[in-house]
Amino acid sequence: MKMMRTCFLAYAGLIALLILVAGSATAQTHQHAEASKLTTCPNCGMVLKEWAHTNHEFTNPEGSFRTCSIHCVTDMSQKSVTQAKEVRVALHLQPEKMIPAETAVYVIGSKDPGTMTQVSKLAFESKDAAEKFMAEKGGKPGSFADALAVATQELPKAKPMIQTNRKNKGKIVDPVDQDRCPVCNMVPARYPNFNAQLIMADKKRFHFCSTQCLFEFMQEPPKHGASTGDVGDVWLHDHVSGRYIFGKNAYYVVGSKVHGPMGPEAIAFDLKSEATDFAKANGGQVFKFGKITPAAIKAK
Ligand SMILES: [Zn+2]
Ligand SMILES: [Zn+2]
């Protein structure tokens, strides 16, 4: 009898423990369900589920994010001068499952393509799973830190290459002389360092002479000829390199003494450090995309 009672107590304890574990798992699932509401990569605009096998989740001082790839994790870290924490990665062969990146075995440079860059970095749950994959597809095993180091090293070459690919695939289209800014009617092609473009959710593309007109347009797109209010990708120029960058994850200096086609502009930067340096030299304040209003731009 005593034996039975001990057994029962141990059993009850085990159940309680299981409930506790299940509770924290539910909380975690909920947290990740929140993240999955975001359907596009905040760093490059690609549809996350199309690249599910290389998705990563992480937090940094700017928030919690889910990106298409480890490339976008490193790019966001470099841009914001922050370190990605609590990183989770989707399994290459079972993308609906995400595990802590620290525990994953990455296969670097196999025949299976990755996302964004040429050297794929694919995650597996165990050494055995990675070895089985490598026997067929090649590549080298590594830790999350190894994959991160490769992705970071690639950045300077990968970024211009990605921009060329975007142009080749028609994601970014240079404005032609016939294009008119829907806000001021000027010719965006005449302002190659300041023009911007926006693709609406219905795929219609608008070219703007400047960021001032872009942000004015976004206040009320249908007022300027859009059939929808849903804004998709935004491409504009990094003030330092002149290269097209993803506008929704750029840094902007508003209120500086540097003016553009419409006078005061939100001057765009790929890197936060360069935006900060620019503001120190030219005045103004650094903002992220979602915090900018046309009124704030025109205030100076
Ligand atoms: Zn991305
Ligand atoms: Zn304009």
User: How many separate structural domains?
Assistant: 2
Strand content: 25-35%
Order the strands across the largest sheet as they lie in space.
2-1-3-4
Q: Judging from the principal axes of the Cα atoms, what is the shape? A: elongated
- Radius of gyration from CA coordinates: 23 Å
Low-confidence stretches: 6-37
- How far apart the termini lie comes to 84 Å
List ligands, each type once.
zinc ion
Compute the average pLDDT: 89
Elements, N to C (H/E): HEEHEEEEHEHEEHEEEEHEH
Secondary structure tally: strands: 14
Structure description:
With 300 residues, the chain is of the alpha+beta class. The protein has two domains: 133 residues, no CATH class; 111 residues, no CATH class. Helices cover 36% and strands 25% of the residues. The chain has a four-stranded antiparallel β-sheet with strand order 2-1-3-4, covered by helices on one side. A hairpin with a 6-residue loop joins strand 10 and strand 11. Helix 2 packs across helix 4. The chain is elongated and about 60 Å long. About 11% of the residues have low confidence. It binds zinc ion (ZN) (2 copies).
In short:
With 300 residues, this protein is α+β, with helices and mostly antiparallel strands. 36% of the residues lie in helices and 25% in strands.
